[in-house]
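Fold in C-alpha cells:
===
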Amino acid sequence: MAKTEVRAKKFLGQHFLTDEAIARRIVESLSGATHHVVEIGPGMGVLTKYLFENKDLDFHVIEIDRESVDYLHNHYPQLDVIEGDFLKYDINGLFQEPYAVIGNFPYNISSQILFKVFDQRDSAIEVVGMFQKEVAERVTATPGSKVYGILSVLLSAFYTTEYLFTVHEHVFNPPPKVKSAVIRMQRNNVSHLECDEKLFVQVVKAGFNQRRKTLRNALRSAGLPVDAVDDATLSQRAEQLSVGQFIQLTKTIQSCL
C-alpha cells in the first residue's frame, strides 16, 4: 500500500492521512452534484492530488498553516490556495453557484465547521469529510440513539447524511487516540422549514442542552413557553423527537410568543 510521508502539526489538532487508497476513496465519494469544490485544511495534499486530477473541477483549498501553504504552492503551482481560517472566510464569495466541501477535518474544530456549513446550507450542497468517529456517528444518528443530538437534528433537517466507512488509527501521522470515519452530507429538497428557523434552532438547542430532562423542564429552563404543547410531547426527552416533531413543537411554541 502506497503511503505519503507528511509532517504532523499537532498544534493544529490535525492528524494527517497517509493511506493513499483511503484518500482516493474519500475523493471518489463526492457525488458530482457540483463541479465547484473547496477543500478545508489540505495539509500536504493527500486529498488534493486526487482532486487535482479532475480537470473539470473549479477547485480551491483553504489552509491556515504557512508551511503547508508553501508546500502546496510549490507542488501545485496552478492551484488556488487561500491562506486563512475557514471559520472566518466567506466561502460564498468564491463561487457564484452551489459548491461542495471536502476535507480531512481537524478534530478540534470539526463541529464548528459543520455549524458553519449549516449556516451556509443554501450554497454548501454537499460535504464529504473525515471526522472523529463519534462526531460522524452523532451527525448521522437517528431519533432514539444516545448520540442523537443538536447536530443530528439541524443537519438532517436540510441534508441527507450518510456514514460511509470507518478509518482506523494506524493510517494517520501522528496516530490519533480515536477512530475516524468518513461521512457524506447531500442537500435535500427542503428549501425552508414550516416554522421560524431561528426559533427552531433555539428549541433544538434548549432540548439537548439538558438532554436528561424532559422537554417540559428543558424548555422551561430556557424560558420558552410550553403551555400550548401537548403533555405527550413534553413528557419526552429531546433525543426521542424526529425533525418533523421538532418542527411541530417549534410551531406550537411560536404561536405562544
Observations:
- The two ends are 60 Å apart (CA to CA).
- The chain has two domains: 10-187, 197-254.
